[in-house]
TrEMBL record, chain A:
Source organism superkingdom: Bacteria
Domain Periplasmic binding protein: 40-296
Cellular location(s): Periplasm
Species the sequence originates in: Acidiphilium iwatense
Protein name (Swiss-Prot/TrEMBL): Autoinducer 2 ABC transporter substrate-binding protein
Automatic annotation (TrEMBL), chain B:
Function, in words: Part of the ABC transporter complex LsrABCD involved in autoinducer 2 (AI-2) import. Probably responsible for the translocation of the substrate across the membrane.
Subunit: The complex is composed of two ATP-binding proteins (LsrA), two transmembrane proteins (LsrC and LsrD) and a solute-binding protein (LsrB).
Residues that span the membrane, as ranges: 25-43, 55-78, 85-103, 109-126, 172-193, 224-242, 254-271, 303-321
UniProt keyword list: Cell inner membrane, Cell membrane, Membrane, Transmembrane, Transmembrane helix, Transport
Compartment list: Cell membrane
Record has Ribonucleoprotein as a keyword: no
Protein name: Autoinducer 2 import system permease protein LsrC
Membrane topology annotation: Multi-pass membrane protein
Pfam families on file: BPD_transp_2 (PF02653)
Main location: membrane
Recorded superkingdom: Bacteria
Length: 337, 328
């Protein structure tokens, strides 16, 4: 008990220091120091997956640094109604800010409105909510930047030409489908020699991804590359390629995290994959909310204490953009997220 | 045992031998037609080594728990928690791998965890007198939440590659090792059901529990053995799943039970108990897997996969119901 109180006091003290530092950095904005640290709640698409745990890690770091109490709660499956229920209960608890990585861009609009009416800041991060009542959006990287980076890695791996297939997650996932569309665009514009022969869907299930990739390898014997669109599709595809003894003959790349793909990068089946840093995304989210709560304005380019890169802000959509995608290969696969 | 009870129980025991082979023949024909169509449509890609291996590994991992599920359903019960048992067992075993345990030391952990989870189901059903579907619906949810607790929102990727090599990549008699194991289990289970007293009691129990009890059969013991065996086999399947794809996720195994029950029911085992065979279960599993395989090989839009599978199940069951009504 004493330990917890101590910790609380320390956190509060740290928080005050953080507030002062923040106020000093951004002249002109009067920080509204509060007696107790504000509570920021984040509701991910689902809990129990490393990606959102990494975001939470970043949020916690920001909470510590800038003086906020972080609540992390989410549904156990990526369900729209499950997420809405949790957001509703957090609004009823009167947290200072509540936000989501949205399971649907539209279904949470009503809750955003309700939060605003009760003077609770509503934000979205990672996967956005539409509408005028969202006070802040935090975007990992532009969809275009990410999709193009993946196609560039693919082209590099297969030498710019050949048949390729995509293995995606859910057929209705907004962000995955947006990336696929942009990837096709990049292929058509820059790599006319690369032909996309099939898109399969394996959900968030690595076994299904392995199975589907094995079937793709049989159905298209001349396949040169496979692109996994979500974090389970890439290791699943790599496992199938490895099992078929095609390591080095069929390239595997895509969007996934270092923890999931590490064994395959180490054994050479996968050369590189693309992602952003979810810890930084969580951290930036925490920073951005504190700015909003303290009524400090964003600039076109912002210096965030603790982040190396400058962060751009788009006033029209109220969006903070973390930055360029991160290419993960043998040199940095030891990153832990 | 009185004469009267014996006359009740005798035809029940005998009915097993008069099982109509209609379902098996129908499934075999379905399978032949499917394979023929897919071979033609895929220009022979169906017969490639990669595809056949894929098909056999997927079938083996489904059919191993399906053996246990067949017996459970034959006793008149059901277990809908199998996917969660697979997930929790994988999480527990995976945690051991992550802690640096050897393969040999961890295999018993998989089997024991599966058996214990099956035992809990059995005790709830037998001692708790909770209907099987409700009891296992409860544990489906509890076991799944325990997966979240055990994994603590991390995925386990530290799975020894030897697991893949031994069970999935290596071959024995032209088949992946896991498929040979599955066949041995199937034959063992079929012989057990046919030639051992306990095996015949399984059918008797499923046909009429009261009559079986009067005939001196102890239903509790048979049910206990059936659920524990299903748990054990599911624990083994969890190990094989990690050989197939080396990662434990919080979602590992979700949706798996539908695949298993679909294979068993398509194979002709009656959900009311007392009727069904291991051969049927094998054929049911193969049909499910071949349909799934064909969707990709025939380059059909993936959304049609669910539709095709549903149609095959409805057609097979519809046809055999028709056949049985006419035959009766």
């Amino acid at each position: 008990m004493a330990e917890i109180e101590n910790h609380d006091r320390r956190a509060r003290r740290l928080g005050r220091i953080g507030l002062l530092a923040g106020a000093a950095l951004l002249a002109g904005a009067a920080g509204q120091a509060r007696a107790a640290p504000p509570t920021i709640a984040f509701v991910p698409k689902l809990i129990g997956i490393p990606y959102f745990s990494a975001m939470k890690q970043g949020l916690d770091q920001a909470g510590k640094k800038f003086g906020a109490h972080i609540i992390y709660q989410g549904p156990t499956t990526a369900s729209v109604s499950g997420q809405a229920e949790i957001v509703q209960s957090l609004i009823n608890k009167h947290v200072a800010a509540v936000g989501v990585s949205a399971n649907s861009p539209t279904a949470l609009e009503a809750l955003a409105k309700q939060a605003k009416a009760q003077h609770i800041l509503f934000y979205s991060s990672d996967s956005q909510v539409n509408g005028p009542d969202v006070a802040l959006r935090v975007q990992q990287t532009s969809n275009r930047g990410l999709a193009y980076a993946v196609m560039d890695q693919l082209a590099k791996a297969i030498g710019g030409k050949g048949d390729v297939a995509f293995v995606s997650g859910g057929p209705t996932a907004t962000n995955l489908n947006a990336w696929i569309a942009l990837m096709k665009q990049r292929l058509a514009a820059k790599y006319p020699g690369i032909k996309l022969v099939s898109i399969q869907y394996a959900g968030e299930d690595i076994n299904k991804a392995t199975q589907v990739t094995g079937q793709l390898l049989s159905a298209y014997p001349h396949l040169k590359g496979i692109v996994g669109i979500n974090s389970t599709a890439v290791p699943g595809a790599a496992q199938a390629v490895l099992r078929a003894g095609l390591s080095g003959k069929v390239a595997v790349t895509g969007i996934t995290d270092p923890n999931s793909i590490r064994p395959f990068i180490m054994n050479g089946t996968v050369k590189s994959v693309v992602l952003w840093n979810p810890i930084s995304l969580g951290y930036l989210t925490g920073w951005g909310i504190m700015q909003e709560l303290q009524h400090k304005p964003f600039h076109k380019e912002n210096t965030v204490p603790g982040l190396k890169q400058k962060v751009r802000y788009f006033a029209k959509t109220r969006t903070l953009l973390l930055g360029k995608p991160l290419v993960i290969d043998k040199s940095n696969v030891s990153l832990n997220f | 045992m009185s004469e009267r009870v014996a006359t009740v129980i005798k035809p029940v025991l005998a009915s097993r031998r008069r099982l109509p082979a209609g379902r098996e023949v129908l499934l075999l024909a379905t399978l032949a037609v499917l394979v023929g169509l897919i071979s033609l449509g895929s220009h022979g890609a169906f017969w490639s080594r990669v595809n056949l291996d894929n098909l056999f590994v997927g079938s083996a991992i489904t059919v191993i728990p399906a053996i246990g599920m067949t017996v459970v359903i034959l006793t008149g019960g059901i277990d809908v928690s199998t996917g969660s048992v697979l997930g929790l067992t994988a999480a527990i075993g995976g945690t051991c791998f992550a802690a640096g345990w050897s393969l040999a030391a961890t295999v018993p952990i998989f089997l024991a965890s599966g058996a214990v989870l099956g035992l809990i189901n059995a005790l709830l059903i037998i001692n708790g007198r909770i209907p099987p579907v409700i009891a296992t619906l409860g544990t489906l949810s509890i076991y799944r939440m325990l997966v979240f607790i055990v994994l603590g929102s991390n995925w386990i990727t530290a799975i020894p590659p030897a697991l893949t090599t031994i069970f999935v990549v290596d071959h024995l008699l032209f088949l992946p090792v896991v498929a040979v194991i599955a066949l041995v289990f199937l034959i063992g289970a079929a012989l057990f059901l046919r030639h051992f007293r306990w095996g015949r009691h399984v059918y008797a129990l499923g046909n009429n529990e009261e009559a079986a009890r009067l005939a001196g059969i102890r239903p509790e013991r048979i049910k206990l053995a059936a659920y524990v065996m299903l748990g054990l086999l599911t624990g083994f399947a969890a190990l094989l799943t990690l050989g197939q794809s080396p990662m434990v996720q919080t979602s590992t195994g979700s949706g798996f039970v539908l695949q298993v029950i679909a294979a068993v029911v398509l194979g002709g085992t009656a959900l009311s108990g007392g009727r069904g065979t291991m051969l049927g279960t094998l054929l049911g599993t193969l049909v499910v897997q071949v349909v799934d395989d064909g969707i990709v090989l025939l380059r059909i839009q993936p959304f049609w996969g669910g539709v095709a599978l549903g149609a095959v199940i409805l057609a097979a069951i519809g046809l055999s119901a028709h056949h049985e009504i006419r035959g009766a």
